[in-house]
Amino acid sequence: MSQRRVQKVAEAIREVVSMAILTELQDPRIRDVTVTYVEVSGDLRYAKVHVSVMGDEVRQGLSLKGLQSAVGFLQAKVGDRLALRFTPRLSFLLDQGVKKSIAVARILREVLPAEEPAEAAEPPDAVEPPPEELDA
């Protein structure tokens, strides 16, 4: 199957699942969930939905369990929206990209020297003469 079609199906699945999570799921475990991207197999039968969950590991685990319990509902939504021979089987994975980028930024702040603020460095032509030269 063409790679372009696989990418279009992945984007459509991401859109359908995102809107269903946002507007239709009533499970209290599923909060602060963002669908980051979707990977679809070449035969369009399987889809890995990568989600980012704001919060600690307990909140992330609860959200993943809630999404796993709602997988049938979400697959039905995907099947209704997309005209495919087979509805892809959804599986949810936790996307650690945001967490890793925050950790890298923290490490870089610790390692790199602090830059001077822009206001502290004045251009050389803006330096005022000493007060004794002004009186002369």
Helix-strand blueprint:
Elements: H1 3-23, E1 33-40, E2 46-53, H2 57-69, H3 71-81, E3 89-94, H4 97-111, H5 131-135
Parallel strand pairs: 2-3
Antiparallel strand pairs: 1-2
Order of helices and strands: HEEHHEHH
Low-confidence stretches: none
Binned, the helix content reads 40-55%
Report the structural category.
alpha+beta
Shape: elongated
For the record, what CATH class of the domain at 3-96 applies?
Alpha Beta
CATH architecture of the domain at 3-96: 2-Layer Sandwich
Which homologous superfamily in CATH is the superfamily of the domain at 3-96? K homology (KH) domain
Count the strands? 3
**What spatial order of strands do you see in the largest sheet?**
1-2-3
Percent strand equals: 15-25%
| Span between termini | 86 Å
Reported for the largest beta sheet, the result is: 3 strands, mixed
Radius of gyration: 26 Å
Helical run tally: 5
Mean of residue pLDDT? 86
- CATH fold-level label of the domain at 3-96: GMP Synthetase, Chain A, domain 3
Task: Give descriptors for this structure.
136 residues; alpha+beta; GMP Synthetase, Chain A, domain 3; 3-stranded mixed β-sheet; 48% helix
Brief rundown of the structure:
The chain has helices at 3-23, 57-69, 71-81, 97-111, 131-135; strands at residues 33-40, 46-53, 89-94. With 136 residues, the chain is α+β, with helices and mostly antiparallel strands.
